Amino acid sequence: MSALVSLASCVKRDFSADKLQNELNEYVKDKDCRIGIAVIYKEDTLQVRGNENFPMLSVYKFPQAIAVSRICEARGLTPGDSINIKGEELLPDTHSPMRDRYGESDIKLPVGELLGYTLMVSDNNACDILFRLIGGTATADSVIKSLGYGDITIANTEEEMNADPRLCQQNCATPLALAGLMNDFYNTGNDNEWIRTVKLYLESCETGATRIPGGNFDGETLIGHKTGTGPRDESGRIIAVNDVGYIEFSSGESYVLAVMIAQSAENLEDTECMIGEISEIVRRNIEGLR
Questions:
Q1: CB under 8 Å to 244, separation ≥6 — which residues?
Q2: What Rg value do the Cα atoms of the chain yield, rounded?
Q3: What gap in Å lies between CA 101 and CA 57, rounded to an integer?
């Protein structure tokens, strides 16, 4: 290979929003599910069904974390301040690594640790304890709407959704709203301890490794994201499989991606891989080399 060809191969091509939009449209058109996508990159916002409502499932633990942070800060609390938790709050019939670690006994934990459980491993008991701390789902919903995100609705707790999976549909959002909220959050300065705490946990997320992180990123790429996964409905389709996050390359370039898949006829693994494939399409167009 000549030096000239070698040099040309290392030159970044210009980003084309139209090209990326066409690739996303082409990808989703033959899938047996409903796919919503939103991408925010610099001055460009792209979307596929971006204004449609989708069930958030545990993705709603991200806007919940913002509401918790704002309310706790207003009360003078820090992430290191602890609250009392009764053993009866650690329900046995739900996903809860926190309960698995501490058992169903009375404990006292920092609020920041509860946020870690909700954001890193999607702990349902920790989520509902945080709702009770701030005054319920309506309080969290009000905070998010006050920030200008009327297309994000927080209506039911994890305990309520576990008892009646149909309630999953009520905790809903549009991909554009979630991407917008994530973009605003990502671009908030790191001077605030609550912001730093939430970012740390998003960047330490242990769920959905083949979703947004499945986009063939190098080891120096920073990804903060929150996943959501639902059960199958009465027709046998998965209610929703979601991921929303920010991606920051070592160059400093960054973007936000939200992918929400509803009513998937595929199995969970294949549905997660669809998110990874969409993430790869976006990455390739933004970071891609000739």
A1: 59, 62, 175, 178, 179, 182, 212, 225, 226, 256, 257, 258, 259, 260
A2: 19
A3: 24
Taking the C-alpha atoms of residue 145 and residue 141, their distance in angstroms, rounded to an integer, is 6
Residue 2 has a CB neighbour count (10 Å cut-off) of 7
Separation of alpha carbons 129 and 115, rounded Å: 10
**pLDDT score recorded for residue 15:** 87
For the chain, percent of residues with pLDDT exceeding 70? 94
Residue 6: what pLDDT? 39
Angle among Cα 38, 26, 214 to the nearest 5 degrees reads 55
Active-site annotation holds for 69: no
CA–CA gap between residue 138 and residue 63 (Å, rounded):
12
Asked whether 140 and 131 are in contact (CB, 8 A), the reply is: yes
Reported pTM? 0.93
Residue 12 is given by DSSP the state: B
State the Cα angle at 138 between 135 and 143, rounded to 5°: 90
**H or E segment and range at residue 110:** strand 107-110
Instruction: Work out the number of other CB atoms within 10 angstroms of the CB of residue 190.
Output: 9
Token pair, residue 8, equals 């040309």
Contacts 24+ apart (CB under 8 A), 134-142: 134/67, 134/68, 134/71, 134/72, 135/71, 139/67, 139/71, 140/63, 140/64, 140/67, 140/68
The catalytic position among 2, 6, 9, 58 is 58
C-alpha to C-alpha distances, 161 to 56, 89, 95, 165, 222, nearest whole angstrom: 12, 16, 12, 5, 32
> Could you identify the residue written with the tokens 């309520």?
160
